[in-house]
Design brief:
about 80% helix, Arc Repressor Mutant, subunit A, single chain, mainly alpha, RNA_pol_sigma70_bacteroid, transcription regulation, 2 domains, Rna Polymerase Sigma Factor, Chain: A, RNA_pol_sigma70_r4_t2
């Protein structure tokens, strides 16, 4: 079928779409927990398959290729979520609605532990800056004045703190859903992570 796809056979494309759409949808949904976002990702994936059809190697597993593209698309979305507050909130809300209260409570505890471990790896001054900015919601200017350092130094501390925390979450979080969840939590520490105070 991939040979037919390579030649631009739209029927072959439709057959592949019908064959893989449902399992891929459930695969992506495990990560993003939002049916609308999962569908958007799949539309992009299948559009990409059609656009690069002539470069698909028929000797390799098409199924593995599809799942790899889906996984890459999910990680691309994660990068977008990291800088898009509205999208992060939307994904979090979908995630929260998709799990039972008891499950969510367990996850909160796991993520608190994980974030606390990352926070503990920061140098003392960076912890202080991070706490003031994220827990107390102070601006860089306010933190700079309180600690007697420049705004640029505060910014540098925050950039390095977020980098270390994200690396820690990448290393110890068990899937991209956790990463999405934690990106939201990092932005919302005042409401959730009282254990950091």
């Amino acid at each position: 079928m991939t040979l037919r796809l390579q030649k631009g056979d739209s029927d072959a494309f439709l057959e592949l779409y019908n064959q893989y759409h449902q399992p891929l949808y459930h695969y992506v949904l495990r990560f993003v927990k939002s049916p609308a976002i999962a569908e958007d990702i799949l539309q992009d994936v299948f559009l990409k398959i059609w656009e690069i059809r002539t470069r698909i190697n028929p000797d390799l597993s098409f199924k593995s290729y599809l799942y790899r593209i889906c996984r890459n698309s999910v990680f691309k979305l994660l990068k977008k979520i990291a800088v898009d507050e509205n999208l992060r909130v939307q994904v979090f809300q979908q995630f929260a609605q998709s799990v039972a209260d008891a499950d969510l409570k367990v996850l909160w505890q796991q993520y608190e532990t994980l974030l606390q471990a990352a926070f503990n790896r920061l140098p003392p001054q960076r912890q202080k800056v991070f706490r003031l900015c994220r827990e107390e919601g102070k601006t860089y200017e306010q933190v700079a004045a309180e600690l007697g350092i420049s705004r640029n130094t505060v910014k540098e501390h925050m950039v390095l703190a977020m980098k270390l925390i994200r690396e820690h979450l990448d290393q110890f979080g068990d899937n991209p859903t956790h990463f999405i969840f934690l990106l939201f939590l990092i932005k919302e520490i005042p409401a959730t992570f009282t254990s950091l105070s």
